[in-house]
Design a protein that fits this description.
2 copies of one chain form a homodimer. Chain A has 417 residues and is an alpha+beta fold. Helix content of chain A is 39%, strand content 22%.
């Protein structure tokens, strides 16, 4: 087949079974967000390119699908959804009562080298909590992300909590300047600890302090943190954790190496992993951030998270989760053309009663129709024959057992239900 | 605000209320397709540009968002979904049991002059029926499109049926050559009947025949059609209409001027209008077509339809349809910080029982919290005060009537449900 009529590289088609799974998980996620008082929003698939460079720097152009429209505007397929949703908030929702709880489920695009679990078009689920910065608010946000992953059926997930304000306070105590934070955070993010130490030495931080900072990054409890730093940020971190326990989460790790790789994060940050996925284990990342003033809005506390939908599905599959399957309640088979109209009336009546039903549309024989009925996973077949019709009867066949019984037409509905 | 951080021209953001409506209609449509045995598929947002020019001609580039990827491939945001789904079928589904019933709900893109009800990003709903061409199959397809529009709540819709095979047979009888059909059909599609007559004269068709053809185009019944032409195509048209009546549709118009504007249609064609929308009234169009061989697949009968989702929503609004609203079952308000943890435990318990519940996350006073509760349309508020807590009670307030009662904590759940 010619290249031009094939699917573009790095993208996917979803077959019916896969799609049914995905819609099932999507619906579950939507219901959880709604049960927490979150409301869904949607933004366009493309935005002005500058929206993303403003947020993430010019580097991002490298991995973005950018194009010009016929008005010579620079547009980009969205690589993520926080910038569009915050842009939307600034344009149209600043006057809404706070807190504003917004969620979204949408496709994003990244010009990446295709590899397992990484696609050029992928689905992102996420939310933004706007207008409150109480510890209980952030605890609820973290609890929500955890609840979503648990309630879609994942058995083994690990929540890790970090805090950027604490790291920044400590770096300041060490004499590091604010404009030097970025390159250091980048090295922590990439787990390049040797380069981190080298860079700190270059910044003339004393050897003992560098050693201390390395130890600090390995802290795994609030008590340990207090050995390195006493700051309001530590108290605040503790408060969030206390509320997290009230919400019912007491299994989590403290991980001061969480950076989130983006300049606009601050305060609490968190990630959730599915260890079963190995190197590509991160399913969710989020935290407190500041983006609204950058887009021209009035400053207000914001936090949010994003879940990689595709990776969550892979994790469910790897854990052996049994997804529901699309089934057909009934397949109606007219024995011959004379009973076709009766068969149609039966399938019509069933569909009106919300029974998932289909009817032979190919005028095939009984054997072929039964074969088709099992290929589309019909639970029952209704066989409409002229002899039975005379008695106002039809035959109902259980597709699993193969058992057939003759049923009065007027009793059909109660029998099928 | 700067242009670059505004929404791109011709696209839309959807606020929570609008989004809730859209998801509601989307879910209803999905359930109807599934009740007819259709299965959902999804294809990428962009395809190779050639896929669309191959199907619709080079003209389409004018109204497409086309761009090059970093591998210098010509890509395009999909302007419609039939070409991608048929491409998908040819690549991966040719061996599936027939008939194959596929549906999709997805966004499409057109570089159009923005105007009312026409956006650069819009949602298309549609389906393809592959592998059968019996009259009952096409009747079911038409009935399905009609059922979708009726069951989402539209009261006044008009179904029109046409048939391209009949027009082509008549044109052949008139001595028009096959390679001349296209420009004639184009004029019919645009209702340019004066130009049509002129063109027929140019093609040396006799004046009486041209007059006859104009009359033929105004036929409104099978019986009238038979006065102009006797052809197998007319019998076939009649058979489809007979089955349509068996499915329960007896209100429709015969409209021989339906062309569908696309070269690959043949046989039965149909459109459904919402007259309330005036000039932009068409909600649905479909018919029998031939596209699989063009994409390199083995020839097999195909038919399908597409519904303009955005326009269907506008029609519902114009008809005054009352959409369900997203509501909050319960808003939990701690009177002060001391009852906050109890409030969280209550909201947690309610959410676990699938009650849509939220809790004050801003430590506001009672009055402000009640105001917020009504702004988010909470049905009930649960007020958690220290005095009541001592008696293991809380106060439940009906947000509509303002009536409050004190309730035992252990009876709360049954009271809320």
């Amino acid at each position: 087949m010619e290249e031009k009529i094939k699917i573009p590289r790095g993208t996917r088609d979803f077959l019916p079974d896969e799609m049914f799974k995905r819609r099932y998980v999507e619906r579950t996620i939507r219901e959880i967000f709604q049960s927490f008082g979150y409301k869904e929003v949607q933004t366009p698939t493309f935005e002005h390119l500058e929206l993303f460079t403003l947020k993430s720097g010019e580097e991002i152009i490298e991995e973005i699908y950018a194009f010009k429209d016929k008005g010579n505007r620079d547009l980009a397929l969205r690589p993520e959804l926080t910038a569009p949703v915050i842009r939307f908030y600034v344009e149209k929702m600043q006057m809404e009562p706070k807190p504003l709880k917004l969620f979204y489920i949408g496709n994003c695009y990244r010009y990446d080298r295709p590899q397992r679990g990484r696609y050029r078009e992928f689905t992102q689920v996420g939310c933004e909590l706007i207008g409150t910065d109480t510890p209980e608010a952030y605890a609820e946000l973290i609890y929500l992300s955890y609840t979503i992953l648990r309630n879609i059926g994942l058995k083994n997930i690990v929540l890790r909590l970090g805090n950027l304000d604490i790291i920044y306070s400590l770096l300041e105590n060490m004499g590091v300047k604010k404009n030097q934070f970025r390159e250091l955070m980048h090295l922590i993010d990439k787990s390049k600890f040797y380069e981190l130490e080298k860079k700190l030495f270059e910044m003339r931080v004393a050897k003992s302090k560098v050693k201390m900072f390395r130890e600090f990054l390995n802290c795994n409890s609030i008590e340990k943190l207090r050995e390195f730093i006493e700051a309001p940020a530590v108290d605040r971190f503790r408060e969030i954790i206390d509320f997290l326990k009230v919400f019912g989460i007491d299994k989590f790790e403290i991980d001061m190496k969480i950076v989130r790789g983006l300049d606009y994060y601050k305060g609490i940050v968190f990630e959730i992993d599915a260890p079963i996925l190995g190197a590509e284990k991160q399913l969710c990342g989020g935290g407190e951030y500041e983006l609204i003033p950058l887009f021209g809005g009035k400053e207000v506390p914001t936090a949010g998270f994003a879940i990689g939908f595709d990776r969550a599905i892979i994790a469910l599959e790897e854990e052996g989760y049994v997804f529901p399957e699309q089934k057909l309640d009934v397949y109606v088979i007219p024995i011959n053309e004379k009973t076709l109209k009766n068969a149609i009336k039966i399938v019509n009546m069933l569909r009106e009663k919300n029974i998932i039903a289909d009817v032979d549309l190919m005028r095939r024989g009984l054997a072929k129709s039964l074969k088709y009925a099992s290929s589309v996973k019909a639970k029952k077949a209704i066989i409409v024959g002229p002899k039975e019709l005379e008695k106002e009867n039809v035959i109902v066949r259980d597709m699993d057992s193969g058992k057939q019984i003759e049923v009065k037409m007027k009793n059909l509905l109660s029998m099928i239900k």
